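tool_call: predict_structure(chain=1)
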Amino acid sequence: MSRVLLIRQTDYEPSGIDSAIGRAFEFFGGGKHFVAPGDKVLLKVNLVAGHKPERRVTTDPSVVESVARLILDCGGHPVIGDSPGIDSFSRAAERAGLMDVARRLGIPCAELDDPVALPPGESFHKIEAARLVRDADVIINLPKMKTHGQMLLTLGVKNLFGCVVGRSKAAWHYNVGLNRECFASLLLDICKGVAPVFTILDGVIGMDGDGPTSGQPFPYGVIAAAEDVLTMDFWLCRMLGVPPEEFPLWRAARQRGLPECELKDDTIAGDFAPDYRFSGVRLPASRSLRLIPRLPFMGPLIERAMTTRPVHIPERCIGCGQCQKVCAAGALTLSGKKLFFDYSRCIRCYCCHEMCPVQAIGFKDSPLVRLGKFIGI
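tool_result:
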């Protein structure tokens, strides 16, 4: 039986984090249950971009350091790794405090690059991830608890998308297009191919609102741990008050008939009751995508016209051009500090919103979405 351990932890004070991380490992058999002496252990963090820890966009360095120390005590060789969406790896890792962790412990902090093939998935037969992912003896997943403009929530499974190398992420966004279930199915295939043995989620202070980078810090007060990352994600989805049918990952898993879709109270352990709900969590503005059923007659142009679209907030813009660089669809043109959208090409992946360093990309609902909100859908 797959179990999920939920530990109440309200701050990043080192002794409290060490206690929580130690408790998480011990519940599942101890560090040596996962790591043998000499093992190369990839610690797959959330390093989507170069944000300071106080923004709560990335996995907190105190969590990463605590896990890394435990791996070292087991005789393993930890490597902190990720592939940021657009920032250079070294800059992102420095700003997020992860390079400092690596220097203190004398361990590598490495970009996930050099793509190699993963085992064929159920829906996607040609997926490439970083060589370090394939070469690691053990992968431990260290995600951040956040909302997400495109996928509603980014938890343990979504964090593994960072195993895909650099600009290939944008290509996947473009190829998958508007179909959130299709993208979620890709995430399921990546998760199966990467096969993390253990996931410890940093939900001490995560993010709500327009995550994964432009939302607000939110005190969830939880460290979650599980061997089955999908079960963990679905429990947290429930605790966030999100009906499962609104979560694209759950819909994709249900379509595959995966048993993790059926949650049982006896799979939860620790400091939170099965009926616990986080209160006051703000979901993304683009959540309104749930209002749009995918019907056979709906082509891409119709779907684009009916869904929430990204918009420019010119008074915040600094003209850095990161939004234009990350747009796989080539739907953006920047002239000075004026940004122009070609909505006929925009695939509503919201990468521009995700990667803007100054939150100069917002959302505007379509008329259908505004009507749905008005009548309370």
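agent: Residues 289-297 have pLDDT under 50 and may be disordered. Proceeding to next step.
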